[in-house]
What we know:
The structure is a single chain. This protein is an all-beta fold. It has a domain at 147-260. Helix content is 2%, strand content 39%. The chain has helices spanning 240-243, 425-429; strands at residues 6-9, 19-29, 37-43, 46-51, 58-62, 70-75, 85-94, 97-105, 122-127, 135-141, 155-159, 167-172, 180-184, 191-196, 213-218, 224-229, 233-238, 252-253, 270-273, 279-283, 300-304, 312-317, 340-342, 346-350, 356-360, 368-373, 400-402, 405-410, 414-422, 433-435. The strands form 7 sheets. It has a 6-stranded antiparallel β-sheet. β13 and β14 form a beta hairpin. The longest helix has 5 residues, at 425-429. The model is unreliable at 1-18 (pLDDT under 50).
Amino acid sequence: MRWALVLVLAAACGDNAVPRGAFELVGHTDLGARGMNSALAIAGDIAYVGSRVDNKPVLIVDIKDPANPQVIGQIGMPFEGLAGISSRELRASTDPPLLFVLNLRCSPDLHGCGAAADEVENLKVYSIAEPKAPLLLGTHYVPPPRFGVRDPHEFFLWHDPIDKTRVLVYLTTPGAQPQLEVLKATTGDPELVLSYDTKGQGGVPTPDSNSILHSIATSDDGRMLYLSHQTAGLYVADLSALVDQAEVPAISMITAAADAPKFGAMGPHSAVPVPGRKLLVTTEEVYPPPNGAGCPWGWLRMVDIASPATPKLLGEYKLPENDAGCAADAPRTTFTSHNPTVTEDVALVTWYAGGLQAVDISDPSAPFQLAEFRPDPLPQVAVEDPGLGGNKVEMWSYPIIKDGLIYVVDVRNGLYVLRYNGYWADEIKRRRFLEGNSNLGAYIARE
Length: 447
């Protein structure tokens, strides 16, 4: 298979153009060429990779040698790999050693799952004191409401920087109230700390069926919550009472509905804070018809949160496919932004068919491309994506920085280990750990 560095040249005069950056392939595993891989979690020298389709286990991958990652085991029946259920979202904690797996009902049409599900949607918590042999500790179920629809979707993992045993899970459950659950997880069953109704308690309007609380993130200290609410906009809330373990824990909305930034066909998908700066990197995810609005595909936007009550849109970053001509793309294809992991000046963003993007955000009013990585696709996989398989590249997971290397999952093609060289490369190389869906990186010392 052919591999190449992807160089992106800065705008300059004639022969004075210089490389801004490049991704270098360090290692790769095709994960058994099974296809339909989902999220990635890393703890020490072990990675865990879920599945977007049912009847597939969570894979356990040894990454001690980043150049040669190897699948060494799995979490399967009776806990994972069930009919009608996908292990869509994974996160891990090293202290305490825990693995979190969010099991969602998956779609027969979009994902190719069975029509019936073996269990109620849930969040499972495993001990990974023995990383190669996870042990189930407890399960938090999210049953459907009596009326309407309510499903778990994503979650953010917050580690208390003072009490190392305290880990909070912020779980979005869009649809019927409540749309957010906060769980405490140390050992045993996750404990429900509070439920939050974004409409009734937070004043977030729900204008149509696409208006869902999609993703959330917190500041590193846990006192600010960033809510990506599709079509209703981007909101900031105060979590001080919850972090301080007040007698009555609460979430207090700071941003009013009239001041929440709204954009695009689908609105904010993810919002990840920029370390040390009053900024958010936001993405928008747009699927092709019939599962989404289609062209133009979603892209990256920067948001100023110096005033949490009035977040302000700044610059934006697109791929060429986000603009003219995207309507001519093959069916079941999307070049849309998805999940970001962010250093002070670089956003690493998975972009489905657009691969992995490295974006310079040093000037938030004018982000630009540093590098991209679009892998050569595998010749074939066991399960092609029935909803989005029109392009054989489908970069999807939150990138994870570990010991200066970047780990990222392509839905079809497996797990990649990359090194970034170029502008701001030291911000990545010095990181022992960083991911966009937890604050763990803030409390693992940098080199």
